[in-house]
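#data-curation
PF: Archiving a pair of folding outputs for the training set. Convention for this channel: one message per protein, sequence first, structure tokens after, nothing in between. First:
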Amino acid sequence: MMHVVNHILKSRDTIARHNERLSKKGASDEAEYRDQGFSRPTVLVLAPLRSSAHALVHQLLDLLPSTVTTVHNKDRFDEEFGDDQTDDTADKEDGTEWQQIFQAGNNDDAFQIGISFARKSVKLYTDYSRADLIIASPLALRQKVGDILVDIVPGDKSTLKLPVDFLSSIEVCVLDSASVFLMQNMDHVRAVMNAINVTPKEAPHADFSRIREWNLNHQAHYFRQTIVLAHAADAQLNNLLTKSCHNFRGVTRLAPVYDLHHVVPSVSHVIPSIKQIFQRLDTPSQPATCPLVNEPNARFEYFERQILAPLLDHPSKHTMIFVPSYLDFVRVRNVFATQKRLISCAAISEYSTDAQISRARSRFYHGQIHVLLITERFHFYKQYKIRGVRQVFWYAPPSLGPFYAEVLNAMDPEEDSKSVVVCSRFDALRYESNHKIMQQIVGTKKAQRMCGSTPDTKSVYMFC
């Protein structure tokens, strides 16, 4: 937030200094100052939850210079965005990193607030036409702008004009906690990012004599700085950077190394003594086709052959199947429905009601069903500890590495307990070389070997 505060204060000081110079010069003076855009907001911060926005604003206020002595509407902001619970701070520090996100306070994902800066004061809840900073969720911005965002072509800033102007002159865009966006709806994020720096139909508050040349020439997106802060790189975030970010200076990615000396991989956080098996799926390539196109079907066929078939031959209770993608979840759920005479299965997702979840968990714990099928988003939002799990099958590696240790640490292990992860070399291609999902789980060097980055004939790896 220091970068955001610095950018806003310098921009406001520059405009104020130029206003003062223009007021002192005569009408015949030909000096001009190109220091503005079509609208006043220059910084946009996208946050996933109200609690995140609350923390960002308080961090911003702490960074302001001592000359700023007044904050308008702060009590209203704390009431609407703050924590309405009475938990102690010590309690909020318990649990996993993702549990702390929801323990932080208000978890509403539809919010927006404009903030304006003056030399001695800051005003919250400022109208967008007079705001310098906008903090909002992607859902709220998409609702405010409307469905016209869907028609915007990524990278095209000239053929379509927006009915609103507050996104037209954004110079710095920050995506905070972008990994949480992956658990929400990335379509909203993509729509908002495509709408930034699009020329508005009307600019009633603009002084066209002071609008920068690149704004007038539909080139503002080449000068916008976009900062994405995420727990880990992801294919959807990479696609967002490629399609919606066009800064002429290029892109810089910072990623950690996963080993015991830097960022500890998730497998090192597993406490129970469990056989952890990783099975590599090798997708056959076909002429004139991309192997990645065949990967979903190949993974499903591998699941039917290597996991489902043994379960049908010898149904075992207390088995959980973890499916990251909801589309794959529906596919697996349907195949279990066709085999319900041989094996019983309960499926719960982020869309399941509390009654459905409670009934499925109870039946699974008491051994009334064989298999419990869950989605990654269910684990993220509900964060239940599923009791009675003896073995886990991962249809694909989880999108976020910490989920792996969280699920295994909640197991009730026995002598024959195990965890089986189906991975492929495309799980490595989904992420940048230093930020693959398998690297988060087993470490950088081991992931390169297991996913086929180095020559290796083995297809099964086991950790104990």
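PF: Second:
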Amino acid sequence: MKSSLNVPEYVRDALAGVAQRLGFTSNQHSVDYDFRVFENNRSVVSVLYRVTFREEPREATVLCKVPPPDADDTLLALFEREVFVYGKLLPALEQFQRTRQEGTAATPTTAGDREESSVPFAPSCYHAHCDAKKGEGIIILEDVQRRGFSNRHKFEPMDYDHARLAMVQLGRFHATSLALKKHQPELFEQYRYMGDVTGERVLAMEGFEQTMEQAFENAAATLPAGDAARREKLARLRGCFAEELQNISDTALSEPFCVVCHGDYAGDNMMFSYNGGFPSRMVMLDWQLAKYGSPALDFVHTVFLSTDESFRRNHYDNMLQTYHNALLSHLERLGDDSATEWFPLTVLMRLIKLQARQALVLGLLHIPLTVASEEAAIAEGEPGEEDEDSASVRISDTTDAKYQSRMAGLLKDVFRLGFL
């Protein structure tokens, strides 16, 4: 597909290297760029497009991520973090799983058991590089859509089947991090320094404090008028929200259970493949916010920000148990037969209570942004100018109703579970 988007020389060179790695002959294959992925991509952190290599009788497709042309220091820092994850962390976790599997007496004997023991957490990465000083960066990934993976509807709360698989995958990911930390501490040491890339930058942003003040005011308006006690609790949190956000980076509160967290473990950062109509496998995307911290950070992010009140009322305990069981089971597969003793469910519940208020603070921004993004997506799909006025009213009404429902549900559950 032709496009005016300029492809830098360093990107072309990297793609040429990947093509050779995939078995294509130098100067004898074609390279086609499809920028429609980029045009539909709302990310401000990266530009994404699809690249197809062709040499009769075969072809292969990869996805290419680069920083936006006008990337500032913060965006480059985020991109650099994702390059580190794809280039260093994820290969180390996969290699560690294979090594532990080979060295464990109870080595799995079936193909299914072997695959479950060595879990791929993300699409395969063929190349990852970043030079922030030059403003250059590139990540070349497997196009998992070719293997039947797809995104669920990004604006809809997660249902039980998707959320359950997300908890299983998260438990395995955190278990691998914990096991690497325990069995190869020298290798793991470098990951302890994966701090919060955006925390201090966000707090220092002009107008951020005013934005949060308005977010708290909007959230308080969803509480019943006569609920003075809960309004007072929310007001106290409003007075110290900056400290709550800073506490996310205080790993001392959650040691010795800290892991490498995904950092943005939301439904729209997951892709699923299906068997018989049900999600059976998943991979995690967009690792720009990955950091060292409490495992509860990823758990509360998914359960409180990617589901709704009805889901949490019916399935919260199940999600807690599913995650914990997956974590313990994978630790055992990696050779730790005492995980139940040193990481009981009570420890996980304590860690979640430490992080839940921070999830609420993030939710004050996440929910209105999600609703606004959905409004924008609907607006882009409007059929024509003749329907513009009626469509705008419908979108506005839906937006208000969805915000009220989601925010009220989040507050209700945080209070119900004793987190505030």
